[in-house]
Automatic annotation (TrEMBL):
Name listed for the protein in its UniProt record: Reverse transcriptase domain-containing protein
Pfam families hit by this protein: RVT_1
InterPro entries reported for this sequence: DNA/RNA_pol_sf, RT_dom
Domain (Reverse transcriptase): residue spans on this chain: 1-123
Species whose genome carries this gene: Meganyctiphanes norvegica
GO biological process, one term: DNA biosynthetic process
Taxonomy, superkingdom: Eukaryota
Ranges in coiled-coil conformation: none
């Protein structure tokens, strides 16, 4: 695809993270919340929101054993998407070669160069 502003080539990589909300490690998320300046009662409130969650499966009137949830943010909640975005907010810092754009669990990386061979060499 030709970049309209300066006639460069652009290559885009479009990622959709599978089960992204389910993979958020609670301890890493808490550390990141602290890094962003959340402390005290607010941090403890968020910690209690994530911890001590349990789940089980029910099928044909049979319930499995209860299992503690140590990863993931509650989907369908207001805080779930916010926690996920905070969790992956530093992802662009890991990719210095491309231009990274993040929206929820969709990540796009764009590479710009004078020609296709430069893009291949960059990637």
């Amino acid at each position: 695809m030709l970049s309209l502003d300066n006639n460069n080539m652009t290559c885009g990589i479009f990622l959709d993270l599978t089960k992204a909300f389910d993979t958020v490690n609670h301890e890493i998320l808490i550390d990141k919340l602290e890094h962003y300046g959340i402390r005290g009662k607010a941090l403890e409130l968020f910690r209690s929101y994530l911890e001590n969650r349990k789940q089980y499966t029910s099928l044909n009137n049979f319930n499995s054993n209860t299992k503690s949830i140590t990863c993931g943010v509650p989907q369908g909640s207001v805080l779930g998407p916010l926690f996920f975005i905070l969790f992956i907010n530093d992802l662009p810092n890991c990719c210095s070669l491309g231009n990274v754009r993040i929206f929820a669990d969709d990540t796009n990386i764009f590479f710009h160069a004078n020609n296709i061979q430069e893009i291949i060499n960059t990637g």
